[in-house]
Specification:
mainly alpha; 3-stranded antiparallel β-sheet; 56% helix; binds s-citryldethia Coenzyme A
Length: 396
């Protein structure tokens, strides 16, 4: 019994850590950051306020927000040397391969000035990472497009600055559409943290050795890339494209037959979750954001959105999914929104990493800040060979 929350002993026996940051109730489909329901944060807060909440434990007041925003803004540029890391990649390298390299490379600039056991150093590392991720993701995109990098502009909002660095060129400014800016900011909020998911557990385990936070976050980026995790939004949009090519809504039944065929290994991407056995609350908010953005952009007849809603309706009435408690997760609609606001599909997971960086670093700092923490050392159940003698080669 911890305050309002009661856990069964079975759950606690599998818990990897105590945390005060994010609470999920998988059966009820509830998600709270530091006690605030995600549905309220998505409407009444912005991403930088949510970053403040995740890092410091509460939403900022007006002055705190001003100071925090100024600190993040003043760290949005990256060392000019970072451009040379990009040059080593092929232009068509996957952005998550590039991001794994770039975030790890940040260590080269800051690791020797970062004492992970110093709370001030942990805080400045958090600010630097939150500030620089949009710049690095935009640089990865510009590099793939063969366009010059765009420097951040301090007068723009966090989401507006990202869109500027992505789509402005030296020849043409990018006019930030407020609907797109708000939608992107909400996408960041919805992806900011999610308790002990695979990539967050990776960051905690990696950081528990005392390595610098930039290297630990790079490990999280690498883990998030997988299609079973953060790569699902890209995979989901590709899946919708494939169904469209098969014939669209009329072919949903054929696709679902493939999913049900055990030998096909075809998954309904964007559906199912290790913890949610109910509707992922983020998916509901993402679908609302879809409606808002597509409506504002005159794309309400977007065929992929219509296909996604038909697919969701059919799956939610199909016993295969109902009996397995498979519901849409955060990745089911996020790709459609990002595609509508002009983000290339290959960048979806990099944007997930951009948003999740605050959750990773908040969880890492929570662990390191606990004087009782030790290096992680998962154990195993050994089911291999019993002891045996080595025979000389001639007798093998
Ligand atoms: C994220 O942990 C987090 O918090 C992650 C995340 C975060 O914010 O960090 O929420 C982000 O990673 C969301 C998940 C994104 N992944 C996808 O959308 C990929 C598609 N989903 C599946 O790969 C799957 O649902 C997982 C990996 C997410 C969960 O897999 P599990 O743990 O095996 O799911 P399960 O145990 O509930 O599966 C029960 C059954 C199994 O079939 P049976 O063996 O009982 O016959 O349902 C099947 C699974 O094979 N199943 C699916 C399915 N998901 C599970 N069948 C078809 N399509 C699916 N999507």
């Amino acid at each position: 019994q911890t305050g309002k929350f009661t856990y069964d002993p079975g759950f606690l026996s599998t818990a990897s850590c105590n945390s005060t940051i994010t609470y999920i109730d998988g059966d009820k489909g509830e998600l709270l950051y530091r006690g605030y329901p995600i549905e309220q944060l998505a409407v009444h807060a912005d991403f930088l306020e949510t970053c403040h909440l995740l890092l410091y434990g509460d939403l900022p007041d007006a002055q705190q927000k001003k100071d925090f925003t100024a600190r993040v803004t003043n760290h949005t540029m990256v060392n000019e040397q970072m451009q040379f890391f990009l040059r080593g990649f092929r232009r068509d390298a996957h952005p998550m391969a590039v991001m794994t390299g770039l975030v790890g490379a940040l260590s080269a600039f800051y690791h020797d000035s970062t004492d992970i056991n110093n709370p001030q150093h942990r805080e400045i590392a958090a600010i630097r990472l939150i500030a620089k991720m949009p710049t690095l993701v935009a640089m990865a995109y510009k590099y793939s497009a063969g366009q010059p990098y765009m420097y951040p502009k301090n007068k723009l909002s966090y989401a507006g600055n990202f869109m500027h660095m992505m789509f402005a060129t030296p020849c043409e400014d990018y006019e930030v559409n407020p609907v797109i800016e708000r939608a992107l900011d909400r996408i960041f909020i919805l992806h900011a943290d999610h308790e002990q998911n695979a990539s967050t557990s990776t960051v905690r385990l990696c950081g528990s050795s005392g390595t610098n936070p930039f290297a630990a976050i790079a490990a999280g980026v690498a883990c998030l890339w997988g299609p079973a995790h953060g790569g699902a939004n890209e995979a989901c949009l590709n899946m919708l494209g494939d169904i469209q090519k098969m014939g669209g809504v009329e072919k949903i039944g054929d696709f679902i037959k493939q999913v049900k065929d055990k030998n096909s290994n075809v998954k309904l991407m964007g559906f199912g979750h290790r913890v949610y056995k109910n509707y992922d609350p983020r998916a509901k908010l993402m679908r609302e954001t879809c409606h808002e953005v597509l409506g504002a952009l005159g794309l309400e007849n977007d065929p992929l959105f219509k296909l996604a809603m038909s697919l969701e309706k059919i799956a939610l009435e199909d016993d295969y999914f109902v009996s397995r408690k498979l519901y849409p997760n955060v990745d089911f609609y996020s790709g459609i929104v990002q595609r509508a606001i002009g983000i290339p599909v290959s960048l979806f997971t990099a944007i997930f990493a951009l948003a999740r960086t605050v959750g990773w670093i908040a969880q890492l700092n929570e662990m390191i800040g606990d004087p009782e923490y030790k290096i992680g050392r998962p154990r195993q159940l050994f089911v291999g060979s019993t002891p045996r003698e080595v025979k000389p080669l001639a007798q093998r």
